[in-house]
Design brief:
It is a single chain. The protein is an alpha+beta fold. It has helices at about 45-55, 60-65, 70-80, and strands at about 5-20, 20-30. The protein starts with 6 loop residues before the first strand and ends in a 22-residue tail after the last helix.
């Protein structure tokens, strides 16, 4: 069995500065059970995702909000890997077969 990575670093194509710190890469860690509660009570799914990403990168949400959209796509992909949501195959569908609900 291969060991799963504990962190994933994403080099930012578009680095930025915030409060005297230059962000040229962000490192995500694996999610812990308590992280599932970070966005509890947040109805906005985007903000909830940003809150989780900020926690996994150990930065303030304001840092995540400053990430360029192209870099955000890379970060989101890395986050999926760290959450175990990448690399799973979709169930096979049989060609020519369709489901019917019984109505004609």
């Amino acid at each position: 069995m291969t060991a799963k990575p504990r962190t994933k670093t994403v080099d930012l194509e578009f680095p930025f500065d915030r409060e005297g710190v230059t962000y040229s890469r962000l490192t995500l860690r694996r999610m812990r059970a308590g992280d599932a509660l970070i966005a509890e009570g947040t109805e906005d799914e985007v903000i909830a995702g940003y809150l989780l990403m900020a926690a996994l990168c150990d930065v303030d949400i304001e840092v995540i909000k400053m990430v360029d959209i192209e870099d955000m796509e890379k970060l989101s992909g890395a986050m999926e890997v760290m959450l175990g949501k990448r690399g799973k195959k979709a169930p096979l569908r049989r060609k020519g077969k369709t489901r019917s609900n019984g109505a004609t």
